[in-house]
Amino acid sequence: MSFLKALTGRYQKFSGTSENNKDEQLKTRYYKANFNQVFQSVEELLKAEPTYRITSVSKEHGEISAEMNGKVPSFLTVTVITTKPFETAVDLHISTEKFSVAGINPALKYELMKIYEKLDRSHTFIGSGKYGNA
Fold first, then answer.
1. Which domains does the chain have, with CATH numbers?
2. DSSP secondary structure, 55-123, as one string
3. In this predicted structure, what is the pLDDT of residue 8?
4. pLDDT tens, 68-81?
5. What is each CA distance from 33 to 30, 48, 52, 73, in whole angstroms?
6. Is the dihedral angle over the CA atoms 26, 28, 31, 33 positive or is it negative?
7. Out of 75, 78, 89, 132, which residue is the most buried by the measure of CB atoms under 10 Å away?
8. pLDDT, tens digit, 9 for 90 and up, residues 12-42
9. Closest by alpha carbon to 11, among 99, 71, 118?
10. E-assigned strand segments in 6-46
């Protein structure tokens, strides 16, 4: 059953981070910074990337949406949430309509990891999946 899940997971056309994700790399990440600092960093990061085009910014809801026109055309939503003073969580969700014989999900996960790596360079990373019960 586990092998079958892993195989079909490669063909999912979406990927995202969450507090209780079974994949350690896809757990919500926390940074030692306030909401405004992280939100601004995410916005600047997406603006600086030529393959991304920001389609929506909602600071009130802590969300930024963008279209990606790279190797894997996709749609990205970044959610920024303050959990404690100077502790901010970032969740990423990406989806595509593209199909790949080898499976598209690893390429989507790679895009999420690139964003997290850039955020790790901008802010002090303090943990992932900190409040999960898994």
1. 2-128 (3.30.530.20)
2. EEEETTTTEEEEEE-SSS-EEEEEEEEEEETTEEEEEEEEEE----TT-SHHHHHHHHHHHHHHHHHHS
3. 65
4. 998 889 999 999 99
5. 9, 21, 24, 31
6. positive
7. 78
8. 889 999 999 989 999 999 999 999 999 999 9
9. 99
10. 14-16, 29-32
Burial 37-57 (b: 16+ CB within 10 A, else e): bbbebbbebbeebeebebeeb
For tokens 């916005």, name the residue: 43
Would you say 100 and 10 are in contact if contact means Cβ atoms under 8 Å apart?
A: no
How far is it, in rounded angstroms, from Cα 31 to Cα 123? 6
The token pair at 30 is 């926390």
Report the distance separating Cα 10 and Cα 100, nearest Å. Answer: 9
Output the furthest CA–CA distance in the chain (Å, rounded): 45
CB contact at 8 A, 111 and 76: yes
